[in-house]
UniProtKB/TrEMBL annotation:
Highest rank taxon of the organism: Archaea
Signal peptide start and end residues: none
Residue ranges of every copy of the Histidine kinase domain listed in the record: 133-331
PANTHER family linked: HISTIDINE KINASE 1 (PTHR43711:SF1), TWO-COMPONENT HISTIDINE KINASE (PTHR43711)
Coiled coil: 96-133
Keyword Ligase attributed: no
Pfam families: HATPase_c (PF02518), HisKA (PF00512), PAS_9 (PF13426)
EC number of this enzyme: 2.7.13.3
Keywords per UniProt: Coiled coil, Kinase, Phosphoprotein, Transferase, Two-component regulatory system
The protein, known as: histidine kinase
PROSITE patterns with a match to the protein in the record: HIS_KIN (PS50109), PAC (PS50113)
InterPro entries referenced in this protein's UniProt entry, alphabetically: HATPase_C_sf (IPR036890), HATPase_dom (IPR003594), His_kinase_dom (IPR005467), HisK_dim/P_dom (IPR003661), HisK_dim/P_sf (IPR036097), PAS (IPR000014), PAS-assoc_C (IPR000700), PAS-like_dom_sf (IPR035965)
Residue span(s) of domain PAC: 56-108
């Protein structure tokens, strides 16, 4: 059995030198026949303080004489003489190269399956959210539009038509923001990030957002750039700008600035957000403005999280709302 077993077998004496090796073991080492060589010469990983634990094989890479390197698990069994004195050790080498490759492939498949499952869960959560919006949140302005349309038919008063138009505008805003969430992939990887000059993007977002008669002020270093996804970052800024304009009366000033190379802020000099409401403002559908959709800040939080950033609400020096976005990579 010692001569013809397929696995490599070494017999090692008390001094750590090989005193016998079967033909399979003699093919395991690049320097040829292991007889009379010490274990540390053959492979340093074979000299291990855990050999006394028979349940723990030692893993090692062995370079064959052919130049091929394969992975083995070496198991040890002690040999005792007639007086129960330790005499030698038998080392059995099991080739686990293919097994390791299969394990890695299975682990990769498991990781891919977990990622697919996570994506499906995110899509299901988003679908549930959209279903709730269509069935409940959109129904409110739709019912209001129908009510005032009936009144306008009966009374012919112009203010009723204005209420209908306002309701339609709110529904249009809600639909646009829902489509933004539905169409945007919010699981970002490194390839989705780029260095973006902050001030030009702030100005572009300001010109795109509906901010009424509000004024923009910036406190940004001239060469400041942010590692971000440009589309999502612009959408974050646009929604914060619209949120400030929707919840405050003019005159209003909105300021964007950086914070010690760790993030940036968007603040206003309006009425602010009460401390007890600063967490729930990010919940979808939450709004205190009659014309608001309630999804702007929910979108902001989702896009901030997609970047790996954090956002919190506090009070500006002028008593208005201040949104601080941190954990941002800034080059200034």
């Amino acid at each position: 059995m010692f001569q013809y077993v397929d696995a490599g077998v070494l017999v090692v004496g008390p001094d750590g030198r090989v005193i016998d090796a079967n033909p399979a073991a003699q093919r395991l080492f690049e320097n040829g026949n292991p007889l009379n060589q010490s274990l540390d010469t053959l492979n340093a990983s074979l000299v291990d303080t855990d050999w006394d634990d028979r349940q723990k094989p030692v893993r090692c890479e062995l370079s064959h004489a052919s130049g091929e390197t394969r992975i083995y698990e070496a198991e040890r069994a002690p040999i005792f003489d007639d007086y129960d004195q330790f005499n030698a050790s038998v080392l059995l080498f099991n080739d686990v190269t293919e097994l390791d490759a299969q394990k890695q492939e299975l682990e990769q498949q498991r990781d891919e399956l977990e990622e697919t499952t996570a994506q499906l869960e995110r899509k299901n959560e988003r679908l549930d959210r959209f279903t709730g919006v269509v069935s409940h949140d959109l129904r409110n302005p739709l019912n209001m539009a129908q009510t005032y349309l009936d009144l306008s038919r009966e009374q012919g008063q112009a203010e009723h038509f204005e209420k209908v138009a306002d309701a339609h505008d709110r529904m249009e805003t809600m639909i646009d923001e829902l489509l933004t969430l539905a169409r945007t992939e919010t699981a970002l990887d490194e390839a989705d990030f780029e260095s973006i000059p902050l001030e030009p993007l702030v100005e572009e977002a300001w010109n795109t957002a509906s901010t009424g008669g509000a004024t923009l002020k910036t406190d940004i270093p001239w060469n400041c750039s942010i590692e971000a996804n440009e589309n999502l970052l612009q959408n974050i800024l646009e929604n914060l700008f619209r949120n400030a304009a929707d919840h405050n009366e003019p005159p209003l000033t909105v300021t964007v600035g950086t914070m010690d190379d760790d993030g940036f802020y968007v603040e206003d000099d309006g009425t602010g957000i009460p401390e007890e409401n600063r967490t729930e403002v990010f919940e979808h559908g939450y709004t205190t403005a009659g014309t608001g959709s309630g999804f702007g800040l929910s979108i902001v939080q989702e896009f901030v999280t997609a970047h790996g950033w954090a956002i919190r609400v506090t009070e500006s020096n002028d008593g208005g709302a201040r949104f601080e976005i941190t954990a941002v990579t800034i080059d200034a």
